[in-house]
Amino acid sequence: MIERRPVLDIITHLVLIVGVVIIAFPIYVTFVASTQTAQEVARAPMSLLPGSHFFENYWKVLVGDAANTPPVARMMWISTVMALVIAIGKIAISMLSAFAVVYFRFRFRMFFFWMIFVTLMLPVEVRIAPTYKVVADLGMLNSYAGLTLPLIASATATFLFRQFFLTVPDELIEAARIDGAGPMRFFWDVLLPLSRTSIAALFVIQFIYGWNQYLWPLIITTHENMYPVVIGIKRMIAGGDSVTEWNLVMATALLAMIPPVAVVVFMQKWFVKGLVDAEK
Amino acid sequence: MATLSFRNVTKTYPNGVAVIHGIDMDVSDGEFIVIVGPSGCGKSTLMRMVAGLESITGGEISIGDKVVNRLEPAERDIAMVFQNYALYPHMSVFDNMAYGLKIRKLPKAEIQNKVQDAARILELSHLLDRRPGQLSGGQRQRVAMGRAIVRDPKVFLFDEPLSNLDAKLRVQMRLEIQKLHRRLGTTSLYVTHDQVEAMTLAQRMVVMNKGIPEQIGTPVEVFERPASVFVASFIGSPPMNLIPVQIDAQRRILDDNGTALELDSAQVPPSLLGRKALMGIRPEHIKLHARGIPVTVEMVEVLGSEQLIHGRHGDTPIVVRCPIGLTREYPLQIGEAIQLGADSDHALHWFDPDTGKRIDN
């Protein structure tokens, strides 16, 4: 690894460059397509140079002249709210439940922990029918609550926080008790600041998880006006008789990519730190 | 400041393991008490019971006139210094010290004053903005002490505060703790397994063994008149030599083989006549080139100005500590047979071989 061999260097770079190209090229094509007219995109072979309709296309999708869907701006808003509520809600709920499981002795403590743990094995898809029934009965179809609440409980995050809390030295809570801090005070003043990096890492993961939800919103939203952007893209690709305006689809796809990328870029430093080490 | 008293205090864990078997002790106002003992003797548990971090199974602990058995740690008016410092890693030194005061909702200005004062005493003033992670071990320990000082508690609790420091720093911090106590005069309870710390810091020390206080007394008392075999072998380095002997009706001291030792037997307690006993003598109180106990030399360790002579009398190992000059003219040979005497007739200690208790008369 530490050897200095020019040939090896060239090979490693080559492999990396090939990898980057493989990943970046489709995105580039998406971008190029989003700057052309529908006819230009449909022509084979498609030109690989950016066209001149950048503003026109993006404006069109954002304020919503496109067929079949509400304005992308609206859908992006829905997606953002959904991703944020899911990410923040998950972190809040799982931190509190991990706090309870680690720091309090109560009857059936381990039983509850294992209950939470077992649900790790159940992905959304498995419990989607009963969950739909519950949400529908509660009248939460086509609402933010319906979009987010069922996705907030998270065994993974609870487990992660539990593991982190277990590494916090016992003396810290004892010192806090002697200082006169009650449990919630300890949670706010000590545990929460210590968990910063874990929170950041989880936020990134959960934001993207929330943003990428497809199946659940597909089932519980029937009004266009509550579609998240991922659904919107699918709806734009028309089947049957109408023509798909690929340039607009591509523009929407690119727009949908921006928030998750932004979250990753801005939080990258903390994200990596949270995954690699627990600051103690 | 306050007194601290233990009334028949016991501790049994929920799983039935008893770790403290009944302690009665009064600590007077401003006294510095050191609890010393091997690991697992219950000394830390006892301290944590005072702090309120462990429940008290039986008996009463009072601080001042108030029984604190059922009080939360924060209500007991104590402050504790932990072995691993237990500083809040995300707070500055200032915030670490101020945290307890903030929770008690003291006015900002007062917090500021108290922390500044404590920082000055501990020479931390220039470090107040740092995080604990940026400090050395000794500095962290001082912050931990600062956190205790600002509370102005009735009792200070120190739980092996110097164990994580290197040897040199330990000596220095030991002196600082002593100075601090002289300056503040707060009643203090200090737990350690290091007998040097115990001897140097304590006004009175408690030697604990298996959940029982074997002896409570001043360091000099404990050293000069150990109450049991355990104390005799725990305090002192190297530990006291213990030789199984038999006293016959003529007051002669016979060893295992029935050979009479040529020691002055005037001080042998009368109750031991005709009985077996353990005879103790400190390595420092053995005289070379004197009649007494025949010993074969096995090894000599030079410590600098002093030396340790390891020998064997029959099956019993014997250690002598003496100035290096004593053997300069006639260096000892390995395997050489020598005679060792006691340097005074008070140098001998007598213990019951069955109970391990000291016998004085």
Structural class of chain B: alpha+beta
- Could you say how many structural domains of chain A there are in total? 1
CATH fold title of chain A: MetI-like fold
Coarse shape of chain B: elongated
How many individual β-strands of chain B? 20
CATH fourth-tier homologous superfamily of chain A? MetI-like
Put simply, the count of helices of chain A is 14
- Rg of chain B is 25 Å
Give the averaged pLDDT of chain A, no decimals: 86
CATH top level of the largest domain in chain B is Alpha Beta
Shape of chain A: globular
Task: Give a quick summary of the entry.
Chain A is built from 14 helices and no strands.
Can you put this structure into words, describing what you see?
The complex is a heterodimer of chains A (280) and B (361). Chain A has 280 residues and is an all-alpha fold. Chain A has a single domain (67-276), classed as MetI-like (MetI-like fold, Orthogonal Bundle), CATH 1.10.3720.10. Helix content of chain A is 72%, strand content 0%. Chain A contains 14 helices and no strands. Chain A has helices at residues 6-34, 38-42, 54-63, 72-103, 109-118, 128-137, 144-152, 155-167, 170-179, 183-194, 196-211, 215-220, 229-236, 246-276. The longest helix of chain A has 32 residues, at 72-103. The model of chain A has no long low-confidence stretch (mean pLDDT 86). With 361 residues, chain B is α+β, with helices and mostly antiparallel strands. Chain B folds into two domains: 4-227, P-loop containing nucleotide triphosphate hydrolases (Rossmann fold); 238-351, Nucleic acid-binding proteins (OB fold (Dihydrolipoamide Acetyltransferase, E2P), Beta Barrel). Chain B contains eight helices and 20 strands. Chain B has a six-stranded mixed sheet, sandwiched between helices. Chain B has a five-stranded antiparallel sheet with strand order 13-12-11-14-20. In chain B, helix 2 packs across helix 3 (108-121), helix 2 packs parallel to helix 4 (137-150) and helix 3 packs across helix 4. The longest helix of chain B has 18 residues, at 167-184. Chain B is elongated and about 75 Å long. The A-B interface holds A 169, 171-172, 174-181, 185, 189-190, 193-194, 196, 279-280 and B 51-53, 72-74, 78-80, 82-90, 99-100, 103-104, 147.
